[in-house]
Amino acid sequence: MDGNGRWALARGLPRVAGHRAGVETVGRVVEAASAAGVGILTLFAFSSDNWRRPREEVQALMRLLADYLQRETGRSVANGVRIETIGRRDRLDAELRAAIERAESATASGTRLRLRIAVDYSGRDAILAAARRVANLSRESLEDALGPPVDLLIRTGGERRLSDFLLWECAYAELIFSRRMWPDFGAEDLLGAVREFRGRDRRFGAVPPTAVRRQEAWLD
Ligand code: IPE
Ligand code: MG
Q1: Which of the 8 DSSP states describes residue 149?
Q2: Beta partners for 47?
Q3: Is 50 a known active-site residue?
Q4: DSSP for residue 87
Q5: Where are the domains of the chain?
Q6: CA pair distance 57, 63, nearest whole angstrom
């Protein structure tokens, strides 16, 4: 979810207006993802490095997040959306923590879409924390502690970097970079990205079956 600030500045609005418009996009994208059969959607709402932003902007983002959770819990239950957050909780204020806990427990039985919201999240810190938690460190145990691998990562706002998001989980993620600012991102953009993803050749380091067949024919 990148580009809220630039979207607002381009319209002569304060950055916070961009974040407010960005919340509208979340609603559209959650709906479109669910309709497209996406099982897990993780949104990067606030990175651990975003604490460096001006205090008022940080407060506005936290407020928008708490409001979103309060407002969307009922609809999420009705639509089978299970809400969870990833990231540190200890630096969030008590009100937001309570909103997160309420949303998570109220939507816990949702099975249609798992909506993960990354708040005070750092991929590097998540790896460190997971490594400290697991008893026998292995690829499998770390993967269990971190969460599911990412199939498709979409970054809006024209930047082409991961910015400390799901670093381990993105080992074989397909990356799509959209020039659209997040408030302008729509259902069609999401569906277009999913279509592009489906057309990609994912080999996970192996060779495609056609190449194997060609090789075998040559050996005969
Ligand atoms: C949203 O966009 C990202 C959040 C932290 C919510 P930005 O605030 O990064 O917008 P730009 O990159 O300044 O345009
Ligand atoms: Mg940005």
Answers
A1: P
A2: 121
A3: yes
A4: S
A5: 4-198
A6: 10
Whether 163 lines ligand 1, by a CB cut-off of 6 Å, is no
Rounded to whole angstroms, the Cα distance separating 41 from 33 reads: 8
Report the amino acid identity of residue 172.
Answer: Y
**pLDDT, tens digit, 9 for 90 and up, residues 35-93:** 999 999 999 999 999 999 999 999 999 999 999 999 999 999 999 999 999 999 999 99
Beta partners for residue 83, in sequence order: 115
The whole-model pTM stands at 0.95
CA distance 110 to 41: 13
Q: Cβ(183) to ligand 1 under 6 A?
A: no
CA distances, 89 to each of 43, 85, 170 (Å) = 16, 9, 23
Q: Nearest ligand, CA of residue 7?
A: 1
Residue nearest to atom 6 of ligand 1 (CA): 45
CATH code of the region 4-198: 3.40.1180.10
CB of 157 closer than 6 angstroms to any ligand 1 atom: yes
